[in-house]
Amino acid sequence: MAFDAMTEDLAVKAAQGDKNALEALLRRIEPDVLRHSSRYLPCRQDAEEACQDALMQVARNIHRFEGRSRFSTWLHVVVSNSARSTYRSLKRRSVEQAGELPQQRPDPRRTSVIAGSRVDILDAMEELETRKPDLIQALVLRDVSQLEYSEIAEHLQLPLGTVKSRIHEARKQVRQTLGEHYT
């Protein structure tokens, strides 16, 4: 989600309280937010739900955008958090609707390889977030949002070496969780 100068300018104006700029910004970023949400969630309806949640978070929290980093970097974090939150919510609802039946892995005969892989990866990321929350944000910004290491370091306000170390460790942890099927 790299945006042009006009989008970045709209974000600054919206952060300063300009409601018209906020409306224009939300319209402008919606397709990119949906596309980014789809990277996490294999079902289009789930991605649309995450997209709407992310746009609501932007509208509610734009005043927190300080302009220290680019708006696109700030937005990556919002969208990633929203998509992961939507996934956790869907998982919780699924368990509740199933009457607390034990969770089963997706049936590989009915699930595409890509969709099944995404679910496995989301589960592994969720487990990593529970065990080592300091690692997950750097991993998401690099491997899902595809930000440069320097952008991640700037956004997280960490030294570049620390960011690289966290990403390396997070990848190692996710690989261990996924097991031999993904190596």
UniProtKB/TrEMBL annotation:
Protein name listed in UniProt: RNA polymerase sigma-70 factor (ECF subfamily)
Domain RNA polymerase sigma factor 70 region 4 type: 137-173
GO molecular-function terms, A-Z: DNA binding; sigma factor activity
Domain (RNA polymerase sigma-70 region) ranges: 25-93
Entries under NCBIfam families matching the protein: sigma70-ECF
Family annotation (PANTHER family): RNA POLYMERASE ECF-TYPE SIGMA FACTO (PTHR43133), RNA POLYMERASE SIGMA FACTOR HI_1459-RELATED (PTHR43133:SF8)
Family of this protein: Belongs to the sigma-70 factor family. ECF subfamily.
Keywords, sorted A to Z: DNA-binding, Sigma factor, Transcription, Transcription regulation
